[in-house]
């Protein structure tokens, strides 16, 4: 049973036409309030009622001619807005002004809180009655990409209340020297943000963009001067490979504030950095920048962003180029990056060396003997056949469509003149101009396992990385339930350095890694 709230020091009462009374939640009306919630809202838990009791002034009960008729529950979102999270009226009291009285009560509460500038309300589903109620209470509908969800907003005050710098990164950060503030985005900023983007970025953003910004406003911020929005940064959380990113979608400053543009950009970027650092999961901050925008690029470099470079020949790029072919910049959030522990000493302390006996392109190791044959046009069908036998048919043609583009990254293993396994790798560029080697697929036929072929395939690619000037490490994603492959990497000196949820359908991937440039 949820605990009852303490008696409010001042009970807010509103009368309409002499028949409707609205009271804040208190110990005197808690029983009626909880009963009405269960009848009107359905699926009400004790925890739900307990949350309402924790701040009774934000919940209220409406009476019609002395009988309980409806309830409303609000939430202070701590970003200068008050959200109506639940409102309902018993069937027999509908169309009598009870809903409007509850809405007006919420508005009056928002005015009393002083720090609140907007009252928000979300309607899920095509509930025409509730939509009409919101509009009749003076709420304005905001455009939304999802037709089944409508956002409503009612302005309380024109003032913007600044928070202390250290109080919250989602609050307002004052910039006294330039007389502008950085604060979190609010729903009331959306229309101005659209105008800013159209005039400065000259791009037509899809409804999905603004829907995301409205749904996750804490990932965006605006610059305010004299109650005018003069700049904005919009971000989204996403995943790229093993990394969790805060990707900056837009960074815009109004043209008439060109003299302050660099300072505003820097302040908005700092807000995004603080947001990422305060999270427990974001590992990198990323954004695209036009290659001709040298001032912004210089700001990024001064804030320790790095440009993600491709190889000299322009191939093996591991981030998606956008349609404008802009430069891609990244910044590590050091505290959230997964640690790279010191690599274990490899158990198989031997080198795989070319010998004179076997045909060109083959290699030999001692006890047992394994030949490693570099892929060539005539052996591609053998590679696909091995893959089908080991992992099952269905994806060989797609997986190995471009295998001959870099033939030195794919090898077949032979024992007793029989092809018993293979390894297929890819080379990726990194932000500092070097590369890493990813073991994409490797496998050995069941009847030839535990005879050293898998270890020899992995060992050779590690040596390949050690002998290459531009490759710093080797890594691979391994299914969480594939213990033999995990043991093969561990015995090869790899360490588990990360995890990618649901990488293989419903199965997580464990990231195995070895630093091939660290001195032993």
Automatic annotation (TrEMBL):
<dbReference type="InterPro" id="IPR016181">
    <property type="entry name" value="Acyl_CoA_acyltransferase"/>
</dbReference>
<feature type="domain" description="N-acetyltransferase">
    <location>
        <begin position="180"/>
        <end position="326"/>
    </location>
</feature>
<keyword id="KW-0012">Acyltransferase</keyword>
<feature type="domain" description="N-acetyltransferase">
    <location>
        <begin position="370"/>
        <end position="517"/>
    </location>
</feature>
<dbReference type="InterPro" id="IPR000182">
    <property type="entry name" value="GNAT_dom"/>
</dbReference>
<feature type="domain" description="N-acetyltransferase">
    <location>
        <begin position="20"/>
        <end position="158"/>
    </location>
</feature>
<dbReference type="Pfam" id="PF00583">
    <property type="entry name" value="Acetyltransf_1"/>
</dbReference>
<dbReference type="GO" id="GO:0120518">
    <property type="term" value="F:protein N-terminal-methionine acetyltransferase activity"/>
</dbReference>
<protein>
    <recommendedName>
        <fullName>N-terminal methionine N(alpha)-acetyltransferase NatE</fullName>
        <ecNumber>2.3.1.258</ecNumber>
    </recommendedName>
</protein>
<keyword id="KW-0808">Transferase</keyword>
<dbReference type="InterPro" id="IPR051556">
    <property type="entry name" value="N-term/lysine_N-AcTrnsfr"/>
</dbReference>
